[in-house]
Give the backbone structure.
Amino acid sequence: MKRPKLSGNKNPPPFWKCFASNWLSNEQFMLAPLEERGLFFSILNFCWENETIPSDPKAMARMLGIDDPQEITKALGNLIRSNTVRSSEDPSRLIAPILDKQFSTFAEQRLAMVEGGRRGGRKTQSHPDSRSYPPSHPSSHPSRGGKASDMNRNDVNLNDLNSNAVYKEGVLEEHRKWIAEYDETPSEIPF
C-alpha cells in the first residue's frame, strides 16, 4: 500500500499513535521475547519515517545501527512476521501495514481540515464586512485610538477582542465535532 501524498503542509507528523494499554493487553506482543519486541518497535519507528525497511537481516541491522546482523536474525519471530509484509513495489523491503493505515487516516483528516479551512476562508472573504475584522466590533482600543472595525485585520490584537464578537455561535461546532471524532477513534493496532 502506497502512502497518500499530503496536501497543504507536506511534512508528515513526527509521531505515530502508540497506546501503551493496547500493546500491554495484546497477547501476541506480550508473549514475544523481549528482543523481538524491541526489534519490532525499532522497525515500526524506522518504517514511520521511511515507509519501508530492508528485509535482509544484514541490511536491516545496518539501517537500525546494530553491529551484529545475527541479533536481527535471532530476534525475527512471529510477532514481526505477522505484522510486516513485503512491499509490492520492492519485494526486498518490508512495510508495516498498521502504520500505513494510520498514515492514510492522518492524511484524510488533514485533507478534511484543509478543506474546512478553505470553506471558512471563502465564507469570511465573501462577507460584506470582510475588509474590517471583526465586523462592527463596538469596543475601542485606547492605544489605537479608534474602533476595532476601523482597523485592518492585521492590526487587531486577538487578546484585545471579546471572543463573542469574533466567534459567532456555531462557527466552531464543526471543529468540536471533528475533535470529538478524533478522540473517540479506536487504536490503529489491529490485534
